[in-house]
Amino acid sequence: MPSAPPASEHLVRHVHKFGGSSLADATRILSLPPLVADGAASTLVVVSAMHGTTNALVAMADEAVAKGDWRAAWQALRARHLDAAAAIAADNAALHDALVADFDALREDLEALTAGDAGDARIARVHGLGEIASSRLVQAALGDGWARLDARDVLVVHPGEMGVGVEWEASRTKLAAWRATHPPQRIVATGFIARGRDGNDTTLGRNGSDYSAAILAHLFDADELTIWTDVDGVLSADPRLVPDATVLPTMSYAEAWELAYFGAKVLHPQTMAPVQARGIPLRIRNTLDPSVPGTWILPENPEGDAELSPVKGLTIVRDMAVLELVGNGMVGVPGTAEKLFAALHGAGVSVTMISQGSSEHSICCVVRASQVEPARAAVEQAFADAFADGRTQAVEVTPDIAVLAAVGDGMVGFPGVAARLFGALAQARVNIRAIAQGASERNISVAIAETDATRALRAAHSAFWLSPQTVSVGMIGPGNVGRTLLAQLAAVLPGLRSRSQVDLRLRAIANSKRMALDHFAIEPGDAIARLHPEGGEPLDLDAFAAHVRAGHIPHALIIDCSASDATAQKYPGWIAAGIHVVTPNKHAGSGAWTRYSALREAQRHSGAKFGYEATVGAGLPVILTLRNLIDTGDTLHAVDGMLSGTLAWLFNSYDGSRPFSELVREARGLGYTEPDPRDDLSGLDVARKLVILAREAGLQLSLEDVDVESLVPEALQDVGVEEFLARLDELDAPMDARLREAQSKGLGLRHLARLTRDGKATVGVVALPAEHACRHTRLTDNLVQFTTDRYASNPLVVQGPGAGPDVTAAGVFGDVLAIANALGSSEGRYA
Ligand SMILES: NC(=O)C1=CN([C@@H]2O[C@H](COP(=O)(O)OP(=O)(O)OC[C@H]3O[C@@H](n4cnc5c(N)ncnc54)[C@H](OP(=O)(O)O)[C@@H]3O)[C@@H](O)[C@H]2O)C=CC1
Ligand SMILES: N[C@@H](CC=O)C(=O)O
Question: How many CA atoms lie within 13 A of 235 on its CB side?
């Protein structure tokens, strides 16, 4: 940290720093003058080398030391600079000559290196030639009235364990001398290069130009430092990993330190210290779009900043490993930690994260993967005695670790931040290996498996309202219900992101034969077309699920709109893998008890949700109502009523004026029936619903336990669907006879179901008097009566349309939203 500044001098008002990408070619360099024409009479511009130049120079120096051929590269780099000079100022002979001299000097240095005359200063001079050359080009582009400052004439530095340190007094003295010979004017200065205490050329290290700009802003006592780059500012996370990362309008120096250290590439961590010492505001802006305000980095965040979110940004550092020293004999023994870290220091190992439980039974730290073996060896050596006598037992290494850090001044004294972070990671099924939070409370870091890194980052980003909760969605069965659901998704999804912070991303679609998988997203409106004709690839449900459970998206959900038992068989495995499942398909809820139990067991372990409200009553809240009764302590005595939309519609419509078979065909056309209408007519569909409700009420009922009356003649029970439909009129005579008999007694036909507490379940057609409630329903109405302790003499009734693509798809959609909203809204937005 620099020493306290002398009385404010304000030698320049504004320092601008341009990185290599802003200086990629003559066109980019010629676009700089308007960016620095901000009205400040005293301006200092600090430049990096032209894009790619430093890499080329480093390679040339290496080649020369290895006695290789660097000449072609030298020629190319020289030509690139001379071409840029010609494009910037064709008639500026002084510029041309100066560049020719720079490249001649470079050639001499390279020849000396080739001849074995190496040395740090010569190598530094080669590495830093790019800044000398670019400063000349920028000076020419800016026009008259700009002086050029070779930073080696002013900056004096020394190497240190924590990076390059500045000799502030020596630098101030040299600056005063430089200013004495240069009248006050605007200045272009070289970044990256400096002089050592010994007067030799040196550099500030990789990406050192930001540091140069900060040091010069400090020395010149600037009011403001702008770092121009090719991004819009500091982002809340790496946008390659979190596409929804947002530009942070402001952040504090401390936050910038934390984020820069933990991998946010926009700023070099050292950059902050010189500006921080003088409280100089620092701003990150985009040369490609100067209209974007960028990010202000200030001594303190503006008031109220933390209200948006206590976490400002998230970073991931990969290629790490956990090293853990375990020992029974370490408990309560002073000096263990000191010895451990001294050993690591001795081995030159940098420790990124430290964590120790209060039992003192183990100390765990996170180090770079490349350093973990030297680290292990050093610790084993340091604790050799303790190993020998059993006080320590092991040095355990866990490779393939990433460190996720949540950073924000607003976390200080804000309860619940850790809970939210850990909750988000748990929901995304990310296991935490180690946790560290400094007493400053500005950073919580967790070590996780590297394979979970992107998913963890996205889940945490969403959890802190930095971006919507992203759910990877796969849909099976774009038939009557599925197709309608796709239309509902197409209409609603665009507004959903902003309204509820939920981003449902349809990434896979499948029918009975084929599937289409998309790395990004399939527009719901285009989904069916992706399967036709012969689109996508052959259906493989395991590959489908693996694609939906994408490693980089925090949450996964499969919507199964088929009536297939084969898909239902997959649910326990999917749920165990953390994939939420939503379905109107009744097979899982009413199928074999062992499979049903496996599904519930998987749910308990993984926490993934199973949404099946639409299996009973389509869009009606039948299961929800029953669950609420049970969860609040009521006892179910009976469920009875009409549970089939198709049969309700058929018996509401069937008065003898039209054949029953004609009505069945119409119901099928309206999308009320099951894909095989015999499932409705045989009573099987209603039996399934009774089983689902019974199990919801805690009864171990199975389909075989339900006493079902079938309307399907025996001769039609085993034929194919097409043949059944062709022979539908075989139903007419028996149904006609039944209707006439009922009418002759003043009764009407209805299809009823009943389940009682003792597990007795019946389904069939009943002739009812006109005053019966089920004779007063309309169209596809279901009518479900719950008789319970609380609703004993006057049952609780749920009534309404119980079939049809629209209402069923809405019921499925409701389950999807309930799950998605629960992912992100446990405590609502910070306020
Ligand atoms: N219709 C309604 O009112 C209600 C329906 N439901 C339930 O909704 C579900 C869908 O009904 P509906 O839309 O009418 O049925 P459809 O027959 O119209 O659609 C079924 C879809 O599932 C696909 N499919 C069938 N078998 C498989 C399989 N093994 N693997 C993958 N996909 C498969 C079909 O593909 P392909 O086209 O290739 O055959 C088709 O896309 C059913 O479970 C039904 O019980 C629930 C409540 C109400
Ligand atoms: N075919 C079923 C659809 C809903 O589950 C019915 O008619 O009720």
Answer: 22
**SS3 state of residue 830:** coil
Choose, from 17, 174, 586, 689, the residue flagged as catalytic. Answer: 689
Q: 183: which residues sit within 8 A by CB, 6+ positions away?
A: none
State how far the alpha carbon of 711 is from the alpha carbons of 634, 664, 689, in Å: 35, 12, 18
CATH of domain 622-803: 3.30.360.10
pLDDT (0 to 100) of residue 206: 77
Summarised one tens digit per residue, pLDDT across range 522-540 is 999 999 999 988 889 999 9
The CA distances from residue 566 to 474, 569, 573, 589, in Å, are: 16, 5, 13, 13
Q: Give the Cα separation of 272 and 560 in Å (integer).
A: 53
Distance 239 CA to ligand 1 centre (A): 39
Q: Which residues of 540-572 are buried (b: 16+ CB within 10 A; e: fewer)?
A: ebeebbbbbbbebbbbbbbbbbbbbeebbbbbb
14-230: CATH number: 3.40.1160.10
β-strands 514-517, 469-476 pairing: unpaired
- Is ligand 2 within 6 A of the CB of residue 613? no
Dist. CA 99 → ligand 2 center (Å)? 82
The answer to whether residue 689 is catalytic is yes
Superfamily (CATH H level) for 313-463: VC0802-like (3.30.2130.10)
Out of 643, 644, 678, give the residue to mutate to test ligand 2, the one with the largest number of ligand atoms within 8 Å of its CB: 644
Q: Which among 484, 612, 680 is the best mutation to test ligand 2's pocket, defined by most ligand atoms within 8 Å of the CB?
A: 680
pLDDT tens, 304-354?
Answer: 665 566 788 899 999 999 999 988 777 677 778 888 999 999 999 989 888
What is the value of pTM for the model shown?
0.67
Calpha distance 21→518 (Å, rounded) = 33
Q: What angle do CA 51, 55, 56 make, to 5 degrees?
A: 90
Q: State the number of CA atoms in the 13 A half-sphere of 774 facing the CB.
A: 26
Q: How far, in Å, are 408, 483, 508, 515, 550 from residue 543 at the CA level?
A: 40, 22, 10, 10, 11
Burial (CB count within 10 angstroms: exposed 0-12, middle 13-18, buried 19+), residue 320: buried
* Domain residue limits, the chain: 14-230, 313-463, 469-614+814-824, 622-803
Residue 467 Cβ inside 6 Å of ligand 1? The answer reads no
Q: Residue 815 corresponds to which amino acid?
A: D
| Burial of 97 per CB tally in 10 Å (0-12, 13-18, 19+) | exposed
Contact 770/746 with Cβ under 8 angstroms?
yes
- Residue 648 alpha carbon, nearest atom of ligand 2: 7
Q: How far apart are CA 171 and CA 152, in angstroms?
A: 10
DSSP collapsed to 3 states, 524-568: HHHCHHHHCCCCCEECCHHHHHHHHCCCCCCEEEEEECCCCHHHH
Q: Please answer whether residues 245 and 237 qualify as being in contact, where contact means their C-beta atoms are separated by less than 8 angstroms.
A: yes
